[in-house]
Amino acid sequence: MTDAVIRPATEADAAALGELGRQTFIDTFVAGFGIPYPADDLQAFLDASFSPETIRTKLKEPGAAWWVAEQEGELLAFANTGPNTLPHPEARASHAELRRLYVSKTAQGLGLGTNLLAVALDWMDAHSDGPLWIGVWSGNLKAQKLYAAYGFEKAGTYQYPVGRWLDDEFILRRG
Fold first, then answer.
1. Residue 82: strand pairing partners
2. Three-point CA angle 138, 142, 143, nearest 5°
3. Closest by alpha carbon to 171, among 85, 103, 61?
4. Could you report the per-residue pLDDT of 99-110, keeping only the tens digit for each?
């Protein structure tokens, strides 16, 4: 088995990114954390967030960047950055936001999340005219600890919609 390769995502990755995003969200937040999303809200969110068409559109977004960790043709993890969208009074669209850092259940513990985070942060530093931003679910202590190790601090809170369900999230800032 060869080591995973981190590379920029392409439009050809859209379907696999959608499948990986959908399954990782379910594995992490539904099965892992046990968040009791109503079925119709979860389905609407997954369909809106991870359809191949949605991913293709997001891959083309101006100012956004995507990377995948791939091993023997299989996508194991991905990171997505772009112009900031978090609702913080000091945040600007010209600042960079880490939007998603997803690692499949089977690839947990291989260092892919940390490697993708380093690549994403380097890109964000080069493409932001201010602080870097991350939104993270308030119950995801592992992710919060990882981001703190890279200098991120809690700067606020907001609610992230999963259908009509609202997750309590922390806004993290570095810089």
1. 97
2. 65
3. 85
4. 999 999 999 999
Query: Over the Cα atoms of the chain, what is R_g?
Result: 15
Exposure b/e, 116-142, CB count within 10 A at least 16 = b: bbebbbebbeebbeebbbbbbbebbee
Check if the beta carbon of residue 8 is closer than 8 Å to that of residue 59.
Answer: no
Q: Which residues contact 56 (CB under 8 A, 6 or more apart)?
A: 11, 14
Res. 57 pLDDT band, cuts 50 70 90: very high
At 40, list the tokens: 């119709």
Separation CA 25–CA 27 (nearest Å): 6
> Angle 14-25/39-50 helices, nearest 10 degrees?
150
